[in-house]
Specification:
By secondary structure, this protein is α/β, with parallel strands linked by helices. The chain has twelve helices and 13 strands. It has a seven-stranded parallel sheet, sandwiched between helices. The longest helix is centred in the N-terminal third of the chain and has 22 residues, at 81-102.
Length: 319
């Protein structure tokens, strides 16, 4: 049995669709609703209310083989510390300890937000000396960083039989409508273009970057699912790994790709980055994939142009 926390969410719904299609027994832990229910190709899986998780774990110890922990408060602008601690830290620690005690495999979501402004690189090193140098720029990134440091501390003697942390970079793709302000920039721009509105990108407040030339490592959700599946098939591999394309692209280029797919002339305007996030804003991210490649993952990732094309042509324009 695969237990997926955050199963009604973006990545969670995609991995559930993939596992159910393969005929696996899947349990989703999340608050499903009318929006998220549209994400699923069929409902041949069980849904557990998050408030019932502890009871479910107690009564299904023998059945559960893998926990894929994706559930979290993912907003990078969330300021409620108690909400972050309860949902992102305490829950993660509980599941880690449960998997360790009952010898169950654990794959959990970390984030590129743990790298902060990137001054210490984007290397998925689990050594605590390196991790201690990283300074996340928001509470969300901090919460993921706390879990990474706790799990990969050298002094820990016991781990789950498989423990894999995945540092997701900027993921985009089907099933992200519920994310509101946290939707990918691809979807936000597509919605603007479809409604014949001007696309507004942030001006640069960094002299090293021109307006719209801030770059991110964007990764298509189909690649994320491929990586998760690969680790599911490699139960002896453990560690903290980046999950990105390692091919950063600018917001200007991204917008052009969306406009091209919609066959519409570009209408782009540059606005000031809001002051409340200006000091937390990342101008450059790029995943180092050396570690992932070294353990044997050799699949090619979508480049941004092809990923956007697949997302729009095979999903968004059909809605």
């Amino acid at each position: 049995m695969f237990l997926i926390t955050g199963g009604a969410g973006f990545i969670g719904s995609n991995i559930i669709n993939n596992l159910v299609k393969r005929g696996e027994e899947v349990v989703s832990v999340d608050w499903h609703n009318n929006v998220s229910n549209k994400y699923f190709q069929n409902f041949n899986f069980k849904v557990i209310d998050p408030l019932c998780l502890n009871t479910f774990l107690k009564t299904n110890k023998k059945k559960i083989s893998v926990i894929i922990h994706l559930g979290a408060i993912t907003s990078t602008t969330e300021r409620n510390l108690n909400l972050i601690i309860n949902n992102n830290i305490r829950l993660s620690l509980m599941l880690y300890e449960w998997c360790t005690k009952h010898e169950k495999r654990l794959i959990y979501a970390s984030s590129a937000a743990t790298y902060g402004n990137g001054e210490n690189g984007f290397n998925d090193i689990s050594d605590d000396e390196y991790l201690s140098q990283l300074i996340p720029l928001n509470l969300y990134g901090w919460s993921k960083h706390v879990i990474d440091r706790f799990i990969w501390n050298k002094s820990k003697k016991n781990h789950p039989p498989q423990c894999v942390g995945l540092k997701f970079f900027n993921v985009y793709g089907p099933n992200e409508f519920h994310k509101k302000d946290m939707k990918s920039i691809i979807l936000k721009i597509f919605e603007k273009v479809r409604n014949d509105k001007i696309v507004k990108l942030f001006k640069s407040h960094n002299p090293g970057f021109k307006d719209g030339e801030q770059v991110r490592d964007f990764i298509y959700v189909k690649d994320v699912i491929n990586v998760i599946n690969w680790f599911l098939n490699k139960p002896k591999i453990n560690g903290l790994f980046n999950v990105g394309s390692s091919i950063p692209q600018s917001f200007n280029y991204l917008a052009k790709c969306v406009y091209r797919n919609c066959n519409v002339s570009e209408k782009i305007e540059y606005i000031d980055t809001p002051k409340k996030i200006r000091n937390q804003y990342q101008y450059f991210t790029k995943a180092s994939l050396k570690k992932l490649r070294k353990v044997g993952y050799n699949k090619k990732f979508f480049n941004l142009k092809d990923g956007i094309n697949d997302y729009i042509q095979n999903y968004l324009i059909k809605l």
